[in-house]
Amino acid sequence: MKEVIIVGGGISGLACGLHLAESGYKVTILEKEAIIGGLARSFFIQGKWLPLAHHFIRLSDKTTQAYIKKFGLLNQLRWIESAQVFWYENKPYLLSQPQHIFSFKPLDFRSKLRLLYLGLYVWFKEDWNELNTTDCKEWLNKIAGKKNTEMLFQDLMDIKFNMPLSSVSAAWLGERMHQSTRNRDRYGYIDMSWQKLFNRMAEEIIKRKGEIFTDFEVSKIINSNVEGKDSSAKSISLSADIIVSTVPPPILNNILNLPDEVKSQLSKIQYRSLISFVCGSSQNISQYYWSAVLKPHLIFGGFFNHTVLSPSSSINDKSVYYFFTYLESNDPLFNYEDDKIKDIYLKDIRSLFANFSLDWYKIFRIKFSDPIFVYNYRNLPIEFTDNIYLAGAYRQYPKPGSMDVALYSGLETAQYIINKYGKS
Ligand SMILES: Cc1cc2nc3c(=O)[nH]c(=O)nc-3n(C[C@H](O)[C@H](O)[C@H](O)COP(=O)(O)OP(=O)(O)OC[C@H]3O[C@@H](n4cnc5c(N)ncnc54)[C@H](O)[C@@H]3O)c2cc1C
Fold first, then answer.
1. Residue among 409, 10, 7, 366 at smallest CA distance from 194
2. Residue 36 is part of a domain; what is its CATH number?
3. pLDDT at 241 over 90
4. Residues 390, 413: contact at Cβ < 8 Å?
5. Residues paired with residue 77 on neighbouring β-strands, in sequence order
């Protein structure tokens, strides 16, 4: 029986581990955090599980839906229809339908036409790889016009990724816009959180003699050995025939000795950090699930009314909101005490919603959130060395990171290993 160690118990690690365990491999998953699920993991509050940061699926997320079905959770998957709202100078605007674009006051008529053209362009374009060597600014200037690029897209880029458009791959942003346009306004969620799905996957791995260690931080991978520390800070060394890393590239860089050429590719993936300010309030500040705040610039780039997505997640019959801020991890805000962050957020929330009351709040800091690809990036191969393999949402460029993409990546790497070594 071949033994596999998987570093990281996020979705790609769980998917890879499950597929290998189902094929007879002895799987051990090592996860740094106290709970599995990675970026999509949840926290427990007053009898409810809520994701650390907003998380939904789209209709096109077929791999996730197949897993939800596999684990008998289809009856708990709920779909909602809800447009995205854009706040501009304290007024909300919808932009998802052509008629909305014409009512969007800040744009002149010509820019509205260009925006419509962009919508059609991204809807129909299938192959985004050909824009691999083009940056977003150049591409958007050409398709949407300079005015839209400056007025809308740079602001959206700041809100979502805190990056200049000129540094980002048009292939990656275009694919992201393609997916959003094709699947817009429908959002799916499992009642009582994605953690249910992750726990079911973990149970299946354990049923097949696999092991999952949480609170286990890997510090080195050398050949067939993995070194790390468990929850009591005790150093532990483990070995296996096969090692799969699912950690984000900046961590991979620290734990594995990478050749310069690989380091140079990985340096083209830039991570922003994220503050997720999750809170409860008796006010219903938006009937829509997703709001982006374009102008004025507030401390948060937007917010999600989670109660619209999942009414059963409300706490004490009050709404649950996710306010988010993308920033550099060395930004002082990222390291402020929770109380100070809360005051800063409340001030800006009340500049939009004067009577906003705060029932409870939690703050999560995610150092490596979404991967952002600088143009001219190439994916790393699955097989890193004879016994070290890679998986993770970041490996699926130009597809934007999602739970579905992470699941797919885990399965793809497991299948690659099974094709190479056979069923165990
Ligand atoms: C703010 C935010 C919102 C998002 N919203 C959505 C959404 O609405 N819908 C959607 O589909 N996707 C969403 N995503 C994307 C989705 O969460 C990710 O693409 C997916 O979870 C990535 O899974 P992964 O397994 O590739 O990586 P990760 O989830 O990053 O898993 C890697 C795991 O490795 C662990 N690890 C790291 N270092 C070590 C170490 N040294 N030792 C051991 N373990 C280690 C980590 O703790 C983590 O559990 C969102 C992401 C973010 C950041």
1. 10
2. 3.50.50.60
3. yes
4. yes
5. 190
113: CATH: 1.10.405
Ligand 1 pocket test: which of 43, 54, 55, 324 has the largest number of ligand atoms within 8 Å of its C-beta? 55
- 393 C-alpha to ligand 1 centroid (Å): 8
* Per-residue pLDDT tens digits for 119-157: 999 999 999 999 999 999 999 999 999 999 998 999 888
> Does 166 fall in a domain?
yes
With respect to residue 112, please indicate whether it lies within any of the assigned structural domains: yes
Burial class (CB in 10 A: 0-12, 13-18, 19+), 333: middle
- Does this model's pTM top 0.85? My answer is yes
Which of 12, 39, 251, 395 most suits a substitution to test ligand 1, by most atoms within 8 Å of the C-beta? Answer: 39
Ligand 1 pocket check for 403: Cβ under 6 Å: yes
284 falls within a domain: no
Residues 125 and 256 in one domain: no
Asked whether residue 162 falls in the same domain as residue 201, the answer is no
Does ligand 1 come within 6 angstroms of the Cβ of 399? no
pLDDT at 192: 82
The residue with tokens 């092991």 is: 211
CA of residue 418 to ligand 1 center, whole Å: 24
Question: What does residue 409 show for φ and ψ, rounded to 5 degrees?
Answer: -65, -40
Q: What is the pLDDT of residue 158?
A: 85
Most ligand 1 atoms within 8 A of CB, residue of 54, 305, 365, 402 to mutate: 402
Q: pLDDT tens across 75-125, in order?
A: 999 999 998 999 999 999 998 888 899 989 889 999 999 999 999 999 999
Q: Are residues 262 and 385 in the same domain?
A: yes
> For the chain, what is the domain count?
2
201 lines ligand 1 (CB under 6 A): no
**Ligand 1 atom having least distance to the Cα of 251:** 38
List, as one string, the DSSP characters of 80-97. EE--EEEEETTEEEE-SS
- Residue 13's closest CA among 251, 231, 186, 222? 251
Our mutation pick for probing the ligand 1 site, out of 57, 195, 247, 306, counting the most ligand atoms within 8 A of Cβ, is: 247
Residue among 38, 34, 43, 45 at smallest CA distance from 14: 38
Give the range of the structural domain holding residue 224, as residue numbers without chain letter.
Answer: 3-45+64-71+192-268+375-421
Q: Is 13 part of any domain?
A: yes
173 lines ligand 1 (CB under 6 A): no
Q: Which residue has the CA at smallest separation from atom 39 of ligand 1?
A: 32
